[in-house]
Automatic annotation (TrEMBL):
Record protein name field: Short-chain dehydrogenase/reductase family protein
Family: Belongs to the short-chain dehydrogenases/reductases (SDR) family.
One Pfam assignment: adh_short
Molecular function as annotated in GO: oxidoreductase activity
Keywords assigned by UniProt, alphabetized: Oxidoreductase
């Protein structure tokens, strides 16, 4: 089925193709504000799923997302979950709430992320990119492992999806940033570097989670594509992308680059969550709804880096995974 998908495939098209796989499934997607990739994935999946848990740190925006999904699909079952991924306390509270739900969890999608922010430490003392894009999702996964394993059956393996970026392989991104993770230092910090390092972490976690679970969980990472979102409007992002030649002097997309729409960008997330042809490709990196391990930068294909990142992060949160 996946061989029919391409650069222009939309999340709705992928969800329709895998409606049978989505039916009866319970899915949690982080970062589901309107007009974003997470929302679009949730909208497409909600048409067929048993339950979609949408998350964000702003309850009002979450309610807007739920309202739009339910207006389109009145029978969709949506659960709103407030979470601040940069706060370990908030992550623990949200995980407790999910674990109290009666339903098991079939798919966990780590979509939420921040990008190109000024140097700042989280309330737990971590650099904000790492806190939001890696450490928070790592802890959330760890705490929801029992809920994921409860969905397993002889013919189904639960999945965890990390929305990464091709930015992990760009110049300046060839570094996992272990020093930034353990000893954040504003004098050695760059906004683009912080983003790229955490997108590298996403790729490494897809590989390492699959490896450590020994077949109990299938994890994947992916590049959604180059998509013009509201994040480009922020001053720091605007200047960065103008300097990179991605946006013009008016802040508009440079047409020489291959841009995707939001529905096209969310397609690979839905494929990673449900395409059965990926069952024997645990840990794979996807692009355009296809396994694309040839696009992984060498530092993210290094098992030693994956193992080191995992061990450091377990130490930082003070907890170990148990499968």
């Amino acid at each position: 089925m996946s061989q029919e998908f391409s650069f222009t495939t939309t999340a709705e098209e992928v969800a329709a193709a895998f409606a049978g796989e989505i039916k009866g499934k319970n899915v949690l997607i982080t970062g589901t504000s309107l007009n974003g990739l997470g929302f679009e994935a949730a909208r497409a999946i909600a048409r067929y799923a048993n339950l979609v848990v949408i998350t964000g740190y702003d309850e009002g925006r979450l309610k807007l997302s739920e309202d739009v999904i339910k207006k389109e699909n009145p029978t969709a079952k949506i659960y709103r979950l407030s979470i601040d991924l940069a706060s370990l306390a908030s992550v623990r509270q949200a995980a407790d709430e999910v674990n109290r739900l009666t339903e098991p969890l079939h798919v966990l999608v780590h979509n939420a992320a921040i990008a190109f922010v000024d140097f700042k430490l989280s309330e737990d003392g971590f650099e904000l990119h790492y806190a939001t894009n890696h450490i928070g999702p790592f802890l959330l996964t760890k705490l929801l492992v029992p809920k994921l394993l409860a969905s397993a059956s002889p013919d189904y393996t639960p999945r965890v999806v990390f929305v990464s970026s091709a930015a992990h392989a760009l110049p300046g991104g060839h570094d996992v940033g272990f020093a930034a993770l353990t000893n954040p230092d504003p004098t050695n910090y760059s906004r683009s570097g912080g983003y790229r390092q955490t997108k590298s972490a996403n790729v490494l976690m897809g590989f390492e989670l699959s490896k450590r679970s020994k077949g109990k969980i299938n994890a994947f990472s992916l590049h959604p594509g180059l998509i013009y979102t509201k994040g480009f409007d922020k001053d720091y992002a605007l200047v960065h992308f103008q300097n990179a030649g991605i946006l013009d002097e008016h802040g508009q997309p440079v047409t020489s680059h291959a841009w995707k729409t939001i529905p096209q960008g969310a397609a690979t997330t839905v494929a990673a969550a449900f395409d059965p042809s990926l069952n024997d490709k645990a840990g794979a990196y996807l692009a355009d709804c296809q396994a694309a391990n040839d696009q992984i930068s060498p530092h993210c294909a290094d098992p030693g880096n994956a193992e080191k990142l995992w061990n450091i992060t377990e130490n930082l949160i003070g907890e170990s995974f148990s499968f």
